[in-house]
Amino acid sequence: MVVVLVRCHVKPGCEEAFAAASVENAKASNREAGVLRFDFYREEDPTRFVLLEAYRDEEGPRAHKASAHYARWRDTVEPLLAEERTRERFEGVYVPERHLGC
Amino acid sequence: MVVVLVRCHVKPGCEEAFAAASVENAKASNREAGVLRFDFYREEDPTRFVLLEAYRDEEGPRAHKASAHYARWRDTVEPLLAEERTRERFEGVYVPERHLGC
Protein backbone atom coordinates (compact mmCIF):
# COMPACT_ATOMS: atom_id res chain seq x y z
CA MET A 1 0.00 0.00 0.00
CA VAL A 2 1.12 3.52 -0.81
CA VAL A 3 0.45 6.35 1.63
CA VAL A 4 0.93 10.00 0.74
CA LEU A 5 0.87 12.83 3.29
CA VAL A 6 0.45 16.29 1.78
CA ARG A 7 0.81 19.50 3.80
CA CYS A 8 -0.78 22.74 2.68
CA HIS A 9 -0.19 26.16 4.22
CA VAL A 10 -2.84 28.67 3.18
CA LYS A 11 -2.91 32.46 3.24
CA PRO A 12 -4.74 34.00 6.23
CA GLY A 13 -8.39 34.46 5.32
CA CYS A 14 -8.34 31.55 2.85
CA GLU A 15 -8.91 28.80 5.43
CA GLU A 16 -12.60 28.23 4.82
CA ALA A 17 -12.38 28.29 1.02
CA PHE A 18 -9.48 25.85 1.18
CA ALA A 19 -11.30 23.54 3.59
CA ALA A 20 -14.47 23.51 1.50
CA ALA A 21 -12.59 22.62 -1.70
CA SER A 22 -10.57 19.97 0.14
CA VAL A 23 -13.58 18.27 1.75
CA GLU A 24 -15.22 18.11 -1.69
CA ASN A 25 -12.02 16.60 -3.13
CA ALA A 26 -11.72 14.10 -0.27
CA LYS A 27 -15.31 12.92 -0.71
CA ALA A 28 -14.82 12.36 -4.45
CA SER A 29 -11.43 10.72 -3.90
CA ASN A 30 -12.93 8.21 -1.47
CA ARG A 31 -15.05 6.94 -4.37
CA GLU A 32 -11.99 6.09 -6.50
CA ALA A 33 -11.39 2.34 -6.93
CA GLY A 34 -7.69 2.67 -6.05
CA VAL A 35 -8.22 4.71 -2.88
CA LEU A 36 -8.41 2.87 0.43
CA ARG A 37 -9.26 6.17 2.05
CA PHE A 38 -8.61 9.87 1.73
CA ASP A 39 -8.66 11.99 4.90
CA PHE A 40 -8.41 15.72 5.52
CA TYR A 41 -7.01 17.22 8.74
CA ARG A 42 -6.28 20.64 10.20
CA GLU A 43 -3.12 21.37 12.21
CA GLU A 44 -3.07 23.41 15.42
CA ASP A 45 -2.07 26.40 13.29
CA PRO A 46 -5.43 26.98 11.56
CA THR A 47 -3.74 27.96 8.27
CA ARG A 48 -2.07 24.53 7.98
CA PHE A 49 -3.82 21.42 6.66
CA VAL A 50 -2.96 17.80 5.91
CA LEU A 51 -4.26 15.38 3.26
CA LEU A 52 -3.69 11.73 4.15
CA GLU A 53 -4.12 9.52 1.09
CA ALA A 54 -3.95 5.70 1.25
CA TYR A 55 -3.86 3.79 -2.04
CA ARG A 56 -4.03 0.08 -2.82
CA ASP A 57 -0.91 0.22 -5.00
CA GLU A 58 1.28 2.40 -7.24
CA GLU A 59 -1.50 2.83 -9.77
CA GLY A 60 -3.67 4.62 -7.17
CA PRO A 61 -1.82 7.95 -7.08
CA ARG A 62 -1.62 8.01 -10.90
CA ALA A 63 -5.37 7.48 -11.28
CA HIS A 64 -6.04 10.12 -8.61
CA LYS A 65 -3.92 12.72 -10.38
CA ALA A 66 -5.76 11.98 -13.63
CA SER A 67 -9.20 12.58 -12.07
CA ALA A 68 -11.41 15.60 -12.77
CA HIS A 69 -11.89 16.27 -9.03
CA TYR A 70 -8.13 16.40 -8.45
CA ALA A 71 -7.71 18.93 -11.30
CA ARG A 72 -10.55 21.02 -9.90
CA TRP A 73 -9.07 20.95 -6.37
CA ARG A 74 -5.56 21.81 -7.60
CA ASP A 75 -6.77 24.76 -9.66
CA THR A 76 -9.06 26.02 -6.88
CA VAL A 77 -6.49 25.89 -4.08
CA GLU A 78 -3.46 27.13 -6.05
CA PRO A 79 -4.18 30.83 -5.41
CA LEU A 80 -5.07 30.14 -1.75
CA LEU A 81 -1.68 28.69 -0.80
CA ALA A 82 0.91 30.73 1.12
CA GLU A 83 3.71 28.45 -0.12
CA GLU A 84 4.16 25.36 -2.25
CA ARG A 85 2.61 22.26 -0.74
CA THR A 86 4.92 19.48 0.49
CA ARG A 87 4.54 15.73 0.12
CA GLU A 88 5.82 12.71 2.01
CA ARG A 89 5.43 9.14 0.91
CA PHE A 90 5.19 6.05 3.12
CA GLU A 91 4.80 2.33 2.63
CA GLY A 92 1.60 1.16 4.31
CA VAL A 93 2.69 -1.77 6.48
CA TYR A 94 -0.63 -2.20 8.28
CA VAL A 95 -3.60 -0.29 6.84
CA PRO A 96 -6.91 -2.00 7.59
CA GLU A 97 -9.04 -1.48 4.51
CA ARG A 98 -12.26 -1.36 6.42
CA HIS A 99 -13.05 -0.56 9.99
CA LEU A 100 -13.44 -3.83 11.85
CA GLY A 101 -16.96 -2.83 12.86
CA CYS A 102 -18.06 -3.16 9.23
CA MET B 1 -12.18 13.71 15.50
CA VAL B 2 -8.70 13.61 16.95
CA VAL B 3 -5.79 12.43 14.79
CA VAL B 4 -2.35 11.66 16.20
CA LEU B 5 0.73 11.06 14.04
CA VAL B 6 3.63 9.43 15.89
CA ARG B 7 7.11 9.06 14.37
CA CYS B 8 9.53 6.42 15.62
CA HIS B 9 13.19 6.15 14.64
CA VAL B 10 14.65 2.74 15.54
CA LYS B 11 18.22 1.54 15.93
CA PRO B 12 19.66 -0.27 12.90
CA GLY B 13 18.94 -3.98 13.23
CA CYS B 14 15.78 -3.37 15.28
CA GLU B 15 13.46 -2.75 12.31
CA GLU B 16 11.77 -6.14 12.21
CA ALA B 17 11.24 -6.41 15.97
CA PHE B 18 9.78 -2.92 16.00
CA ALA B 19 7.50 -3.64 13.03
CA ALA B 20 6.23 -6.89 14.54
CA ALA B 21 5.37 -5.24 17.88
CA SER B 22 3.75 -2.30 16.08
CA VAL B 23 1.57 -4.43 13.79
CA GLU B 24 0.36 -6.36 16.84
CA ASN B 25 -0.41 -3.07 18.60
CA ALA B 26 -2.19 -1.66 15.53
CA LYS B 27 -4.39 -4.76 15.22
CA ALA B 28 -5.41 -4.60 18.88
CA SER B 29 -5.93 -0.82 18.72
CA ASN B 30 -8.32 -1.17 15.76
CA ARG B 31 -10.60 -3.15 18.07
CA GLU B 32 -10.90 -0.27 20.59
CA ALA B 33 -14.34 1.36 20.64
CA GLY B 34 -12.85 4.88 20.45
CA VAL B 35 -10.53 4.15 17.52
CA LEU B 36 -11.75 4.96 14.01
CA ARG B 37 -8.58 3.36 12.71
CA PHE B 38 -4.99 2.81 13.60
CA ASP B 39 -2.45 2.50 10.75
CA PHE B 40 1.25 1.69 10.66
CA TYR B 41 3.61 2.98 7.93
CA ARG B 42 7.28 2.83 7.06
CA GLU B 43 9.21 5.84 5.72
CA GLU B 44 11.71 5.65 2.85
CA ASP B 45 14.46 5.42 5.48
CA PRO B 46 13.75 1.85 6.69
CA THR B 47 14.58 2.75 10.30
CA ARG B 48 11.77 5.34 10.44
CA PHE B 49 8.12 4.47 11.03
CA VAL B 50 4.81 6.27 11.47
CA LEU B 51 1.71 5.44 13.52
CA LEU B 52 -1.44 7.20 12.29
CA GLU B 53 -4.15 7.07 14.94
CA ALA B 54 -7.70 8.40 14.33
CA TYR B 55 -10.04 8.65 17.32
CA ARG B 56 -13.72 9.52 17.58
CA ASP B 57 -13.09 12.15 20.27
CA GLU B 58 -10.81 13.29 23.10
CA GLU B 59 -11.60 10.20 25.16
CA GLY B 60 -10.08 7.93 22.48
CA PRO B 61 -6.39 8.69 23.11
CA ARG B 62 -6.92 8.38 26.87
CA ALA B 63 -8.55 4.95 26.55
CA HIS B 64 -5.79 3.85 24.15
CA LYS B 65 -3.04 4.86 26.58
CA ALA B 66 -4.80 2.93 29.35
CA SER B 67 -4.93 -0.31 27.32
CA ALA B 68 -2.82 -3.40 27.99
CA HIS B 69 -1.68 -3.58 24.35
CA TYR B 70 -0.40 0.00 24.45
CA ALA B 71 1.60 -0.71 27.62
CA ARG B 72 3.05 -3.86 26.04
CA TRP B 73 3.98 -2.00 22.83
CA ARG B 74 5.55 0.92 24.74
CA ASP B 75 7.66 -1.38 26.91
CA THR B 76 8.68 -3.57 23.96
CA VAL B 77 9.76 -0.75 21.66
CA GLU B 78 11.42 1.49 24.25
CA PRO B 79 14.86 -0.25 23.97
CA LEU B 80 14.57 -0.41 20.15
CA LEU B 81 14.31 3.36 19.62
CA ALA B 82 17.28 5.42 18.42
CA GLU B 83 15.70 8.58 19.82
CA GLU B 84 12.56 9.69 21.60
CA ARG B 85 9.45 9.36 19.46
CA THR B 86 7.68 12.53 18.30
CA ARG B 87 3.99 13.26 18.14
CA GLU B 88 1.80 15.61 16.13
CA ARG B 89 -1.87 16.20 16.68
CA PHE B 90 -4.49 17.17 14.10
CA GLU B 91 -8.20 17.87 14.05
CA GLY B 92 -9.90 15.41 11.72
CA VAL B 93 -12.00 17.61 9.41
CA TYR B 94 -13.03 14.82 7.04
CA VAL B 95 -12.30 11.26 8.17
CA PRO B 96 -14.70 8.72 6.65
CA GLU B 97 -15.34 6.17 9.35
CA ARG B 98 -15.78 3.33 6.96
CA HIS B 99 -14.63 2.76 3.43
CA LEU B 100 -17.51 3.59 1.11
CA GLY B 101 -17.38 0.06 -0.26
CA CYS B 102 -18.64 -1.28 3.06
Q: Would you write up a description of this structure?
A:
Two copies of one chain form a homodimer. Chain A is an alpha+beta fold and 102 residues long. Chain A has one domain: 2-Layer Sandwich (Alpha-Beta Plaits), CATH 3.30.70. Chain A is built from three helices and four strands; from the N terminus they run βαββααβ. A four-stranded antiparallel β-sheet of chain A has the order 2-3-1-4, covered by helices on one side. In chain A, helix 1 (15-29) packs antiparallel against helix 3. Strand 4 of chain A pairs antiparallel with strand 2 (35-42) of chain B, so a sheet runs across the interface.
Tag the structure with descriptive keywords.
alpha+beta; homodimer; Alpha-Beta Plaits
